[in-house]
Amino acid sequence: MKNGIRKFSFLFLLLFSAHILSAQSSSGGDSNFLIYSLFAVVAIILLFVITQVADNLIQIEAKEMGAEDGNFSIFPSSGDLFAPKLPAYTKNGSVKVLKKGHDILLEGGASEVIDAATSVTRFAVQPKNFIGMSPIPKLTVEVGDEVAAGDVVFFDKKRPEIKYVTPVSGEVVEINRGEKRSIAEIVVLADKEQKHKEFAAFDLDNSSREDLVNYLLESGAWALIKQRPFDIVPGPQDLPRDIFISTFDSAPLAPNSNLVVEGRAADFQKGLDVLNKLTEGSVHLGLNANGEEAPSSVFTEAANVTKTWFSGKHPAGNVGVQIHHTKAINAGDKVWVLNPQDVLAIGSLFLNRKVDGSRIVALTGQCLSNPRYVKTYAGANIGELLSGEISDTHSRIISGDVLTGKTKTDKEYLNAGDDQISVIEEGDYYEMFGWLLPIAPRPSISGTFPNFLYKDHKFEANTNMHGERRAFVVTGQYESVLPMDIYPQHLMKAIIVNDFERMEGLGIYELSEEDIALCEFACTSKQPLQSILREGLDTMREQV
Hints:
The protein is of the alpha/beta class. The chain has helices spanning 2-24, 28-64, 78-81, 209-219, 257-260, 265-276, 297-300, 319-327, 340-352, 382-385, 477-481, 488-496, 500-505, 513-522, 529-543, and strands at residues 94-97, 111-116, 122-125, 138-139, 146-147, 152-155, 163-165, 170-177, 183-190, 226-228, 242-246, 283-288, 306-311, 335-338, 358-364, 372-377, 395-399, 406-408, 420-425. Helix content is 31%, strand content 17%.
């Protein structure tokens, strides 16, 4: 209302000034020109006001009708005017262009060759890999027992219906314990010739959802699913609003999913069909619109799914970011997520009636002599997997990527769900005046290093943090790299002070550790943001 009064006051002053000037002017020609000019300005302003009101009404109507995608406006947005040129293969598809983010280019990418990891003999199932699991689950095996691939090895005492199975057949040779007598690992010495527990055939078309859930529980495939918020294995009674699968990973040195699914279109489609029966909503595929070539036809030709293309820097491949830009998670929503290899495993179970524990793992990092892909099984022994591969012994082994992975020794095992091992130089040294004398190139979002001049340069990274933990100050760095409508710094502070209402209002339900990892990389204050977020998520989960 105030803006309207100001506009009409301004118009009245213009007309009044025009009248005075015309009365005082001795030259009729000059007077007429001035009056016409002022009337033209008034007409333009009135036209702008009318179109602005119409534009607002159109957007309000679109919102009330539930339209979420598209620019419902008379005027083109800046994104429409200056949007990057999209690849031809995205034509007629729904495309989300993400303008925030940062790609960390590192040396040591895996060559696209898949070798068989025949030297790996030990595999482990690790209860601590599953969030919310009891520290001491109920074991169903003992040392010395023989197991087939797909046999149950433990279940959660709080939810005994959810079973966890071994990916390989062989002899249980170790049951290792961690802090407070918790179960850390159930280790199986694999048979040379794998034996599988065979399950009954399942008629997907003529069976109920309840029967399907029971089948997945008995086979252990249910544990492949993660539920957002909290990243927990869902309960059998949970009904997801939607299911999301990201078909690409934009993290540093991440494996190429196109290579992983090559030749397995039937398994992937069957897995999608199974997931469709588990939700009343939609199964969403996030497709990569960054490359010059289209993604694998296994993804682009998948049926009975909703496909959305994503163009942008990391974390564009994160499923949490894709959910946010497709259909955000609100309080009370339950959304399930899987990665492509999990979908393949579910599809293979229904086509072949046995548990497929195989995994394609990318061995990456500049400290490896031969970075490449290997075919092994879930929970492989890292020392055997990397035997003879590490060229620099002063290095750190990470299960996962360098942003979100966990530090491991060569005696430990690949975490459940991880399809990458990164080996980089250990940065346990002090760099004097490192921030004052930025001599050595390093991956950074800071303008102190002229990385923007060498956009395709790949760095040799190390684990040095280049400073200690500092005051938690507002810098705007988090917002510059997180393509989500969230204020991460305010959220982190709300978690620290245990403010439940602010945590919920600031969007904690939409985030997982991988979504905030790039913010942690960029953080001048050196705050452990992923640990803080997990603390907040666990706190909120206890309140539900």
